[in-house]
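QA checklist item 7 of 12: single-chain prediction sanity check.
[x] sequence parsed
[x] length recorded as 181
[x] structure emitted
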Amino acid sequence: MTSKRIGLLALCFLFPLIAGFAEIQKGAVVLDVKRLSTSKSTDTRWQTCAGFSNKDHYRSIEVEIKMNNMLRDDLPLKVEWYFISRSLNDGHQSIFDSGSKDMVCKAGTQEIFSVESAELKSTVVTWGTCGYGGVRKDKSGAKIDGYIVRVLYGSNVLNVAASSKPLEKRGYRDTVSVFGK
């Protein structure tokens, strides 16, 4: 048998596998993510009668992840989630919490689970001059800016859901390196 015939024979056997993977990539896993709750708390470290204060704010969010396997076969998948923060000082985005879950999504079924972020802290100090007008707020820390959820089949991203379109676009790339974590 010549090498051309062996190559052609190998291609005939591999084509169904490649075509099957292409089918998986075309939305075989439907992903729906929604924000369930936001946890908020504030600790006042000190406050004056004039309204000047030093407060620590703590925030976390919980999201519900729904996945539908639209294929006739079970799929071994990995679900990754990233919670994004934005610095109060320079506006830079970063990942403040992340996680992943390996699972087998059964054929024609829906998987539902929820995940909660770690707490994110920010501090706001309000200063002013009594009787001279002008109030200054010094802020440090970060605020919650959103989330990204990705579904992977092997190393290929099948679907992404995020809290905004720009974050969704980032989700289709290598999310971890985008934010520098």
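[x] summary fact logged: The chain has a mean pLDDT of 81.
[ ] second reviewer sign-off
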